[in-house]
Design brief:
Blueprint (H helix, E strand, L loop, with lengths): L1 H28 L9 E7 L2 E8 L2 E8 L11 E7 L2 E7 L3 E8 L1
Antiparallel strand pairs: 1-2, 2-3, 3-6, 4-5, 5-6
């Protein structure tokens, strides 16, 4: 009996923890909510400087890492794709990453 109660509590805690992490990821790393509100923000993420601008269907993010230290992308590349009604443009260089999202 006691083991089943513990198992239920662990399952409940695990589910809540996963939901909380998913919600945080939505806001910070690409969920649809990031460009639905007006936002101007600059902050330091380790050795990288991050700048975010968002307003009415548009979102821009720039990440600059001095000498490429701390960059979590590799190589130089460009990519464009559609995410639902939104066009996403990404460009990466050795020390800089840019992302722009425009929604209809």
């Amino acid at each position: 009996m006691q083991a089943s109660v513990i198992a239920i509590l662990l399952a409940l805690f695990s589910g809540l923890h996963t939901a909380a992490l998913a919600d945080d990821d939505d806001r910070r790393f690409g969920g649809k909510r990031w460009w639905s509100e007006e936002r101007n923000e600059e902050y330091q993420d380790g050795p990288c400087k991050v700048k975010i601008e968002a307003k009415g269907g548009e979102f821009k993010r720039e990440i600059k890492c001095k000498d490429g230290i701390g960059a979590n992308w590799s190589g130089e590349w460009k990519r464009e794709f559609w995410d639902g009604p939104c066009k996403v443009k990404q460009e990466a260089k050795y020390d800089e990453f840019k992302e722009e999202v425009k929604c209809k």
